[in-house]
Design goal:
By secondary structure, this protein is α/β, with parallel strands linked by helices. It has 12 helices and 8 strands. The protein has a single domain, classed as Alpha-Beta Barrel (TIM Barrel). The structure holds phosphoenolpyruvate. The site of phosphoenolpyruvate has 13 residues, from strand 8.
């Protein structure tokens, strides 16, 4: 039985005060860490202060990104050892906004994944097609290519720290959600691809999250599908009542 994960990707939002208020509210109301894994991914400057606040809670923290090198002349970047030194051992990689606005391609993402795995970090790796690819019937090929191009070098130990998020780009921040059937169909396909890459046991164990306009009104339906192991939530993770309702839907 795979434990569900509900992860909140805050993107480039909130002031420190707003971030603290949000996690205080989550901490006060979330007590089911034994049933569902809850992760929030704030911006870099808030990771350390929030780590302190969340120390005695079941809520985990993740970075939204990191560099593939461990140190050096990379102005403005943050490395795996830096994250680990402030108690953060999780990172989201391959988000479509990173691919689209920061030109992160499959080769670069493979380097980031390798660095994260070499540092024994947990990774949420995002994949997903754009609208034109879905309309052209290419969505399965796109997702397979994204998985194979960046995750081909993972060892069995690496796979045990990997979570995949299927995020159709046309559903992110648009209010349009994949139907539960569309999500289930793609998640099943992703499990088959992972099986081909890493074996059946790994494919059965890996958690595959759905992301793209998850909200309280659609979460339960999405999470009820057999291959949907939770969600990566953007906009709705900024509102404590919505995020808590989505967590509730995963219980
Ligand atoms: C995301 O950023 O990963 C995301 C899924 O955003 P939203 O829930 O706002 O569509």
């Amino acid at each position: 039985m795979r434990k569900k994960i509900v992860a909140g990707n805050w993107k480039m939002n909130l002031t420190l005060k707003q971030a603290i208020d949000l996690v205080e509210e989550l901490k006060k109301n979330f007590h089911s860490g034994d049933k569902v894994e809850v992760v929030v991914a704030p911006s870099f400057p808030y990771l350390y202060p929030l780590r302190e606040i969340l120390k005695a809670s079941a809520i985990e923290l993740s970075a939204q990104n990191m560099h593939w090198e461990t140190a050096g002349a990379f102005t403005g970047e943050v490395s795996a050892p830096m994250l680990l030194s402030v108690g953060i051992d999780r990172v989201i990689l391959g988000h479509s906004e990173r691919r689209q606005y920061f030109c992160e391609d499959a080769g670069l993402l493979a380097k980031k994944v390798k660095t994260a795995m070499d540092h024994e970090m947990q990774v949420i790796f995002c994949v997903g097609e754009v609208l034109e690819e879905r309309e052209a019937g290419r969505h399965f090929d796109t997702v397979r290519e994204q998985l194979e191009a960046s995750l081909h070098a993972l060892t069995p130990a690496d796979w045990s720290r990997m979570t995949i998020a299927y995020e159709p780009v046309w559903a992110i921040g648009t209010g349009k959600t994949a139907t539960p059937d569309q999500a289930q169909e793609m998640h099943r396909f992703i499990r088959q691809v992972v099986s081909g890459m890493a074996g059946e046991q790994t494919a059965e164990q890996i958690r595959i999250l759905y992301g793209g306009s998850v909200k309280p009104s659609n979460a339960a339906d999405l999470f009820s599908r057999p291959d949907v192991d939770g969600g990566l939530v953007g906009g709705a993770s900024l509102k404590p009542e919505d995020f808590l309702a989505i967590i509730e839907a995963a219980l």
